[in-house]
Write a structure and sequence with these properties.
By secondary structure, the protein is α/β, with parallel strands linked by helices. Helix content is about 40%, strand content about 15%. The chain is built from twelve helices and nine strands. GO terms for molecular function: hydrolase activity; peroxidase activity.
Length: about 325
């Protein structure tokens, strides 16, 4: 890992180099000697920048909880991270997460990993391929607005129309969507619409498809700005990779650590049915469904996300075999 620059107070930017030459930008906050690290993984078209309110809250002292160090990073092809040369799939993002975990966190401090959408899928890929990390380096997991598999299902199958016929239609629409998104002209058209004025009649339906009909605040406008920073074909390439994600039957390692799953009732990208499917795969996982929220849950409800991390911290001592994590007050009960 090599130092790049000081981006702003308390934010040290570093670069983790992958085997295929991608430079992954990593940001650290808080006391480097803190007994716990929280590693944050953002979603498709977002960046580490979107975790700002969560980081500010987590690194502030709170009675009954240990000091927390946070590590966030830009997924390859997002933010300050480069694309790299490897063929893009979800397993690759899991390997990127493993590299960040190895190079940006301490061996002697437990880590809570928290992921939104694509970030949650990267965590699943890591658990599927390197299960030994869970219950060792990784001591808690938060999965927010994410999928076990069939990522495009929420965009193509109405929640109130289940069944085999609808699923066949879903797969057909997914193949068409993949083909359109792989077309440079189509990708540029979608990119132009998604980054245009949110009041435009052609833009609004697309944003409802992405974020759901829930509350739309400045987080949606920030999402539009994030889209502008990513090339159209990069968005298309990541979309195609997301639709191949499938960790069904491969998440047994997550049963060894406290795992919490959050989903908004109005999420039409990673709908509640997906969250229930995910929770069923992980014995002991706690599922929380949040009324009135869409796919932008972590940005609309940052306090809830911070509370989820604190809940994981309370549960961690019971999952650590070493028992040497010093928590005090409510966190030790």
């Amino acid at each position: 890992m090599t130092a790049l620059a000081l981006a702003e107070p308390r934010r040290l930017v570093r670069s983790v180099t992958t085997d295929d030459g991608a430079e992954i930008a990593v940001y650290t906050h808080g006391d480097p000697d803190a007994p716990v690290t929280v590693l944050l993984c953002h979603g498709w078209t977002m960046s580490a920048h979107n975790w700002r309110p969560h980081i500010d809250a987590l690194t502030r002292p709170r009675q009954g909880f240990p000091a927390v160090r946070t590590v966030s990073y830009d997924q390859r092809g997002h933010g300050r991270s480069t694309r790299g040369a490897a063929a893009l799939d979800m397993a690759l993002l899991g390997r990127d997460l493993a590299r960040v975990l190895a190079e940006a966190t301490r061996d002697d401090a437990p880590v809570v990993v928290l992921g939104h959408s694509m970030g949650g899928m990267a965590i699943q890929q890591l658990a599927a391929r390197q299960p030994v990390l869970f219950g060792g380096r990784v001591a808690g997991v938060g999965l927010i607005s994410t999928c076990l598999n069939e990522v495009a299902e929420g965009l193509t199958v109405p929640v109130d129309r289940p069944g085999a016929a609808v699923r066949r239609l879903s797969r057909a629409r997914q193949r068409v969507a993949d083909g359109l998104m792989r077309s440079p002209r189509s990708a540029r058209t979608v990119h132009r619409l998604l980054t245009g004025p949110l009041s435009h009649p052609n833009t609004a339906p697309l944003w409802r498809a992405v974020f759901g009909p829930g509350p739309h605040t400045d987080t949606v406008r920030e999402g539009a700005r994030a889209f502008r920073d990513i090339p159209a074909m990069a968005i298309a390439e990541f979309y195609a990779a997301l639709t191949t994600h499938d960790c069904a039957g491969r998440l047994g390692a997550l049963a060894r650590v406290p795992t919490r799953i959050l989903v908004g009732t109005l999420d039409c990208v990673t709908p509640p049915a997906q969250a229930r499917r995910l929770a069923a795969e992980i014995p002991g996982a706690v599922l929380q469904t949040v009324p009135g929220q869409g796919h932008d849950l972590p940005y609309e409800r940052p306090v809830l996300v911070v509370e989820t991390v604190h809940a994981l911290l309370r549960e961690m001592p019971r999952s650590l075999s070493s028992g040497d994590l010093a928590l005090s007050g409510p966190a030790a009960r």
